[in-house]
Specification:
This protein is of the alpha/beta class and 278 residues long. It is 34% helix and 23% strand. An eight-stranded mixed beta sheet has the order 5-6-7-4-8-9-10-11. A three-stranded parallel beta sheet has the order 1-2-3, with helices on both faces. The radius of gyration is 19 Å and the shape is globular.
């Protein structure tokens, strides 16, 4: 890596290490004055993530977390509908994800599966939660969070619920956005993500979607940002905000589901739990 970063002809680096190495790796890349695309999460603690974001801004380096779901054609179409107010007043979001393969990659389902989902919910609502609660369950391996139930409440009155698990035999994903006028549902099938709009009793619309691969779109977006003179550091800060939400959910989980606000608890330094995350 030192030889790579010493190359003055190198502009940007993709960091795809295990999460426990993200902070040190990202810091090293930024100190070499390279732009950075990092797989989520940005770090395993909010303070570390904020430090990286500030370093990137001070050096004028682009640092983007490669969230895939926001670039999914189904999610992009849903975001378009929300921007137009097509669903009416939003009531709540319900999200369920089961991924039995995830247990091979991590020791905490919240940090493994929840990173993308927290980023997705924040982008859909263009907001930050004001109150968070979470509970974790261990069934087959003591001390390892295999199932997580999370709730995020926003100042607008909208709330989002996440159920994350790597138990069970099948990979499933469903995102439901309930509005006063319409309900949007995103399901994952063997072809990718499908979006359905329920407009009334029995009326369902399936918008035409492209088959673009979300990760490819995320990478292309990062590459375009490198040549953009009007680049906003909002994406850099977003990575740190997502880690802050995850950290607060973890604090709630460690305190038996107590309601928490972002960064409010003095003993929040109990997170990150590196030994059980990565």
């Amino acid at each position: 890596m030192d030889d790579l970063l010493a190359d003055e002809g190198l502009d940007a680096v993709v960091l795809a290490t295990p999460p426990s190495a993200h902070y040190e790796g990202a810091r090293t890349v930024l100190q070499a004055d390279k732009h950075l695309l990092v797989r989520p999460p940005l770090a395993l603690g909010h303070a570390e993530a904020v430090e990286l974001a500030r370093d990137a801004e001070s050096r004028r380096r682009r640092m983007t977390v490669a969230y895939r779901l926001p670039f999914s054609p189904a999610v992009r179409k849903l975001r378009e509908l929300l921007d137009r107010g097509a669903l009416g007043e939003l009531y709540y979001i319900d999200l369920t994800q089961h991924d039995p393969g995830a247990r091979r990659r991590a020791r905490n389902v919240l940090w493994c599966l929840g990173t993308e989902q927290v980023a997705l919910i924040a982008q859909l609502l263009v907001d930050e939660p004001v109150e968070l609660t979470a509970r974790g369950e261990s069934y087959t391996e003591p001390g390892i969070v295999e199932v997580a139930h999370c709730e995020l409440r926003f100042a607008t009155g909208v709330w989002a619920r996440m159920h994350l698990s790597w138990l069970g035999p099948e990979q499933t994903y469903r995102l439901t956005v309930i509005g006063a006028e319409r309900t949007a549902v995103i399901d994952r099938n063997r072809h990718g993500f499908e979006l359905r709009i329920h407009q009334g009793e029995g009326d369902v619309v399936l918008p035409r979607l492209s088959r673009d691969e979300p990760l490819r779109l995320a990478c292309e977006h990062f590459l375009r940002s490198l040549s953009s003179r009007s680049y906003s550091f909002a994406a850099t800060r977003e990575g740190a905000r997502v880690v802050g939400v995850l950290e607060t959910l973890q604090v709630s989980m460690d305190h038996a589901g107590a309601a928490e606000t972002l960064g409010a608890r003095e003993d929040a330094t109990i997170v990150p739990i590196r030994g059980s995350v990565a």
